[in-house]
């Protein structure tokens, strides 16, 4: 929490005020341009990146579904089905 700032805001302006959705969108878009991304960046990409990273680190699909707030598990499966390398050796016999 920042002293003198009330509320549960994550992103604040230099004047310590909450930034608008439009301003946040433009910040992400500009960051994407500066990074040389071939696509136009948008805030929802952060959500996707988080989902892919969690899935890639082995987070259970149902837990990921709950975390992302998906009602339908099929929306979550997009994240988990993306990296076949994660499943390499999954059927190997584990030592007892």
UniProtKB/TrEMBL annotation:
Record bears the keyword Signal: no
Name of this protein: Tyr recombinase domain-containing protein
GO MF terms, alphabetically ordered: DNA binding
Native source species: Escherichia coli
Pfam families: Phage_integrase
GO biological process: DNA integration; DNA recombination
Alphabetized UniProt keyword annotations: DNA recombination
Residue intervals of the Tyr recombinase domain: 1-92
Superkingdom of source: Bacteria
């Amino acid at each position: 929490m920042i002293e003198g700032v009330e509320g549960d805001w994550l992103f604040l302006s230099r004047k310590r005020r909450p930034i608008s959705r439009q301003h946040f969108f433009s910040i992400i878009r500009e960051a994407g341009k500066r990074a040389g991304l071939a696509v136009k960046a948008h805030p929802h990409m952060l959500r996707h990146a988080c989902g892919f990273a969690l899935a890639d680190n082995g987070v259970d699909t149902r837990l990921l579904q709950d975390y992302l707030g998906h009602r339908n598990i099929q929306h979550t499966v997009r994240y988990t089905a993306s990296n076949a390398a994660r499943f390499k050796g999954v059927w190997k016999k584990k030592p007892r």
